[in-house]
Amino acid sequence: MTAASPRTPAEIAELLAFYASAGVDDALEDTPINRFAEPTAKPAERRPAERAPAAPRREAAPESRTAPERAPERVENPPAPLSGLDASNIPDAPARAPAAAVPDEAQALLARQLAARATTLDELRQYMAAFDGCNLKFTAKNLVFADGNPNADLMLVGEAPGRDEDLEGLPFVGRSGRLLDRMLGAIGLDRTSAYIANVIPWRPPGNRTPTPHETEICRPFIERQIELVNPKVLVNLGGPSAKTLLNTTEGILRLRGNWRVHTTASGIAIPAMPTLHPAYLLRTPAHKKLAWRDFLEVKAKLRALG
Ligand code: URA
């Protein structure tokens, strides 16, 4: 602390109150830390809870609080606990892929191999929880896997969790989530009739934009998640989701409102509607009418597909 720093408990409380009212929600250190240069064992030591085979807080609940018309998913032979996961037992994988200390390409390769291996959503969640290849995991509190009904006809994919989502381990539970719920309600749906996930399952620190490397590393997981849910219709919430999953560089204002196709690794073509992100709509309420039109398109498509 500098000489001008507060010293008494009252001064410290005043400063903290100022930070909170200014929206500061992460305690960062004065000196930057190069986490890529840290010994690879450190992140695992820092986050023992992530190694536990049990799902993070409230993760199992959303998938079970559903009223599926199709049979609920069951894991007949759950994969062995993946504590200390490395690539050594995966054919053709890099010999070792320690936490965020090898080139991103090796981590992306490992992510692709793990994602391809998952035969159920539950397995996929376990592989992701054990995966140490994305540095975002080490600043996040929880893996934010999904919410809603995995048997739903509609799947929505956002960008990355924010603070509230990180705390709860569920996507879209903050302000933009409440708007999303109202948008779904407007077409007669809710979280028992839709499935919600993000391209990036860990909160980027300070809600910064995920880097292209982070997106590439996480991409196989969301692609496999879509393939396992196999929805009739996909909605991309915002530009990053649309660009990542629809293989385009066009901006969301041009993309939105037009049907595209998301093609899964096994070749299944899923109609996809890119639309405006609820967080953008909170900042730009005049554009809510555009999102409304997009959601009406989605409703009509779901009806047409029966
Ligand atoms: N924004 C997103 O893209 N995803 C969330 O889960 C929350 C906010």
From TrEMBL:
Alphabetized InterPro entries for the sequence: UDG_Type-4/5, Ura-DNA_glyco_family4, Uracil-DNA_glycosylase-like, Uracil-DNA_glycosylase-like_sf
UniProt superkingdom: Bacteria
GO function term, MF aspect, one: metal ion binding
EC code(s) of this entry: 3.2.2.27
Entry keyword Iron: yes
Keywords in alphabetical order: 4Fe-4S, DNA damage, DNA repair, Hydrolase, Iron, Iron-sulfur, Metal-binding
Residue ranges of every copy of the Uracil-DNA glycosylase-like domain listed in the record: 145-296
SMART domains attached to this UniProt entry: UDG (SM00986), UreE_C (SM00987)
Start-end of Basic and acidic residues biased regions: 43-76
Gene3D superfamilies per UniProt: Uracil-DNA glycosylase-like domain (3.40.470.10)
Chain residue ranges for the region called Disordered: 28-99
UniProt family annotation: Belongs to the uracil-DNA glycosylase (UDG) superfamily. Type 4 (UDGa) family.
Protein name: Type-4 uracil-DNA glycosylase
